[in-house]
Amino acid sequence: MTVLSFYVVIPLGGAFLISLLGKRIKSSGDILANLSTFSLLVFSLYSIKLVFINKVLVYNVGGWVAPIGICMVLDGLSSFMLVTVNLVSFLVTLYSISYMERYTDKAKFYTLFMLMLAGMNGIIITGDLFNLFVFLEIASIASYALVAFGTEAEELEASFKYAVIGSVASSLILLGIAILYSYTSTLNMADISSVLSGKPQSILVNFVLVIFLTGFAIKAALVPFHAWLPDAHPSAPAPISAMLSGVLIKVLGVYAICRIFFNIIAASHKAFFILVVLGLISMIVGAFLAIAQNDIKRMFAYSSISQIGYIIFALGIGTPLAIFGGLFHLFNHAVFKSTLFLTSGAIEYSVNTRDLRKLGGLSSRLPITGYTGLLGSMSISGIPPLGGFWSKLVIIFAALQAGHFIFATIAVLVSVITLAYYLKFQSYAFFGKLDEALIKIKEVPLTMRLSMITLGLICAISGLLCVPAFKPFLQSAVSVLLSGNAYKDAVFNALIR
Amino acid sequence: MMWRVDILSSYIAAFIGMFGVLVVIYSIGFMKGKPRLFWYFLYTFLTIITSIGTVFANNLVLLLIFWGFLGLLLYLLINFGDKNSNAVAKKTFIIVGGSDSLMILGIGIVYLLTGTFQMDKIRLEPSSLSVIAFICLIVAAFAKAGAMPFHTWIPDTAESAPSPVSALLPASLDKLLGIYLLFRISAEMFIMNEPMRQSLLIIGAVTILAAVMMALVQHNFKRLLGYHAVSQVGYMIIGISTGNPIGIAGGLFHMINNAIYKSCLFLIGGAVENKKGTSELDKLGGLSRVMPVTFFCAIIASLSISGVPPFNGFVSKWMIYQGLISQFTVHSSQFTVTKFVIIFCLIAAMFGSALTLASFLKLLHAVFLGQRSYRSTVNRQPSTKIDEVNSLMWLPMVVLALLCIIFGIFTNQLPLKYFILPSVKDAAFIGIWNSHLATLLIIAGILLGFVILLLGNLSKSLRLDNSYVGTEIIPSENRPSGAEFYNTIKEFGILKGIYNKAEEGFFDIYEQGKRFVFFISGILGHLHNGVLPTYLVWCLLGMMGVLYSLLLK
User: Fold this and answer.
1) How far apart are CA A282 and CA A411, in angstroms?
2) The pTM is what?
């Protein structure tokens, strides 16, 4: 199936063309970027149908049959992630058309953006562990550059920290892959899985798990590996913040952890319990730190740590309901966090500050931004009937069902703090008295509004993903994770077909 | 079955509809000229519909959805108020929304224990898990209804939100829903044991007393009403948690009665504020002459809330007392903790009524009687004549005041017969209360007094005069407004300390929670010093932790 390669080829080709033409032909960058992300979105939606018919699809790159060559694998989980990533990236590029006018050199921005997207789609679609590393580096390095895009002192510092800690993570991941290769003599994920299941559980595999967990936990910004995120995410331009918090940490961190822990190395209960604990710590620490922030984007960045905590917590519990809740929350978080970052971008665009103490009463001047911000905030705080409520509900029920009563209580209490800091955001930014100096501000341009409205609407209706009509989309992703070791059989069967 | 339509939910829904209509009518007059009216009415309609959905929901998750959505609507509606409303709305939604989160936990445990979300199929025996679920759900009910210690949003909201919003939500709809849920939980879904019952009774009694004590010393009309809105919840909690039919019936009836007179009072507060531009008691006074209709409604509602016969508040309080007393007789002759609690509740309830009356005397004096105040009209033209509010605004008040009278005098014929007794089985009165006879006697007494007044020609010897100090007429700035009537109790020994603490927000669960959260975030924020090597050390420590727990342990 050649279509599998499109997910990587389109953004890579887009990046190439934009860097070639962007400078010469005005607004070619806007058009090319939006065309590529839109076609990616269409192909991602098409992948749902492909997965529905074929379950698992394998594409051998260059005609070399796996495990000798590199293969690309599309299954329920990849399709789910592709939809999430490309949905957000399309709306973000739409938003960037007007927003990035604030910066010089849009062409470079789009080039980097497309590279990052190629990296993320590559991670999702690849069936080869080393290939995963390569894409991970493409996405990471592009994101280091994008964080520094404003080239002010603050942004450069953040990018430097991000690059150093990120490189530590990458080297750890590479080390893990090397050890695993020396142990199994293969790099194909399905093949590694089948070799490992033939051998007794050794201490080496557990050591590899530790290394992978650390590496990917840094990428996912789990506490205590999170410290780069609160600097990096706010420093980037708003559309990039939306991409970083919305999808990048999920693809590089959560998705990779899922794939490795569930499908490649069938990790022990102990390892999953570590995930639960890391998730809990992240959700608590992130929430406590978020409430004390006065910089909008910094608050959202800490909030991302907290929400990733929920996702990892749910995935670590590992029951079908919990995995469902975790992936559901992953989707919701991608949507509402990008809504919120785009909202903060709109505020910055109109008012030129992100300091909550200098804002107030904006909803009278920026009604659309106000309402999308409200939708995003209420969804992430878990107010019914918005999307975030449902995923939080499922996660808490799943934790109770698995017997984690205290953990469930903590998750509930953290959601109270979440509500508190999003109300702080709402109260300081949108309600209250409008400052005299802000009386003349205007609502943001059309494309930005369009993108925010679409995301806001998805926030409102994403709860529908758990009604029977739309459930198979999520359920097919859940069943991939639940199948565990059977992943390799599915891939091999698809190879023979 | 997603929905349940029984007598209780139907009549509560009917009352929700009635309050909704009255408040919308009132709002048309009250909110005239305010910005964003479309959204105001949209939120109000959504509130009414969602509330009706809540009482008909039979599925706990469905209930949760409506319940949580109401919190958001309340937040949005409060934001239409004065300049403080922004912070108040935030506080309200954190308390109410936070309790909704606990409700998720409670519902989760209930589902775990019973395997169903159907409210009418759940019947839980006390066990350690079910008690936790009970507490979680009770917290949600208490936060909505405004019982202690989750009450602190009510006085703030009452002061800052627009009056129709206060009349609609904290005064009537939130009470109806909170107590409705309390009834469903404590009388139907859970079988309560003695300690659970006693703790509820004590919470009820403390709520009555503490809130009414706070109400006594308030200087703001609407804030004072807010504290009474808290205080009255105590009666309903006591009534429902007695667990015997007459007490429960009394609690439910009090819920309706309270909603009637309390929203009437809030609408009166709104009317006064609308005309005078302030709700500070110090700046009001002598309005009875210019706002007779409002004054008439205020008297009736005040007497009702104080439990003076023959108005409706008396009847339901009387039923609650009966519930307590019959609970007292159920238990054997030994002196038990239960008896002690019941006696405490009885005393609290009676004291509460007396103090309520006292604080409403202060209110009536400060607002409607006493000398006219011109202070608040400084920013207006002095010649602006203050007159009665327009008919859109007084009509709802009059309807509610009439309901207070009707429900009091025709208790057995109307509310008890059609709403209350059918929804609570086997409620039987002990003691005698004949409302008609009592009413006749009271009217006879008033007439007698009137006759004496006429016969004795007392009215002619009455002299209306200015107040003097020495030989000087007291200027209106220095006139006694009545707001300080009970300030002496504020200076009284232990109470002084408690009042001071209360004003600092020491008993406010929100303030304390905020202090705790910001303390922790202060520590965590301090750790994030922005130095890269520190962060790398964290990663290393984290990795060592993972290594230790996965490999070495």
Assistant:
1) 11
2) 0.91
Tell the residue number behind the tokens 């504290």, with chain if given. Answer: B227
B147 and B233 belong to one structural domain = no
Minimal C-alpha gap between B188 and chain A (Å)? 23
Q: Are residues B472 and B548 in the same domain?
A: no
Mutate to test the interface with B, among A161, A288, A357, A428 (most CBs of B within 10 A): A288
Closest by CA to B226, choosing from B165, B176, B181, is B165
Is B236 in the same domain as B315?
yes
| Contact: B93, A396; criterion CB under 8 Å | no
Closest residue in A to B115 (Cα) is A401
Q: Which comes out higher in pLDDT, residue B456 or B393? A: B393
B493 in the Ramachandran plot: left (φ > 0), alpha (ψ -120 to 50) or beta?
Answer: left
| Domain co-membership, B362 together with B391 | yes
Report d(CA B92, CA B108) in Å as an integer. Answer: 24
Within this chain, do residues B127 and B1 fall inside the same structural domain, yes or no? yes
Partners of B124 in the β-ladder: B190
B438 within domain boundaries: no
**DSSP secondary structure of B382-443:** TTPPP-PPPHHHHHHHHHHHHHHHHHHHTTTTTHIIIIIHHHSTT----S---HHHHHHHHH
Divide the 497 residues of chain A into consecutive groups of 10 and give the mean pLDDT of each group.
Answer: 87 92 85 93 92 88 83 92 94 91 87 94 93 94 92 90 93 94 91 87 87 93 90 91 92 92 87 92 92 90 93 92 93 93 91 85 86 92 89 92 91 92 90 79 88 91 85 90 88 84
For the segment B404-417, what is each residue's pLDDT rounded down to a tens digit?
888 888 877 777 77
pLDDT band at B344 (very low <50, low <70, confident <90, very high): confident
CA distance B287 to B303: 18
Residue whose structure tokens are 């341009």: A445
Residue B187, in any domain of the structure: no
Does A168 sit within 8 Å of B521, measured CB to CB?
A: no
Q: Coil, strand or helix: which one is A155?
A: helix
Considering the domain architecture, whether residues B426 and B529 belong to the same structural domain is answered as: no
What residues of chain A lie within 8 A of the CB of B129, using their CB? 405
- In degrees and rounded to multiples of 5, residue B551 shows phi and psi of -105, -40
Chain B contacts of A382, Cβ < 8 Å? 68, 101
Residues of A in contact with B71 (CB under 8 A): 383
* ipTM score of complex: 0.90
Report angle CA B279, B235, B257 to the nearest 5 degrees: 65
Nearest to A227 among B72, B129, B538 (CB): B538
- Closest-CA residue of chain A to B531: A161
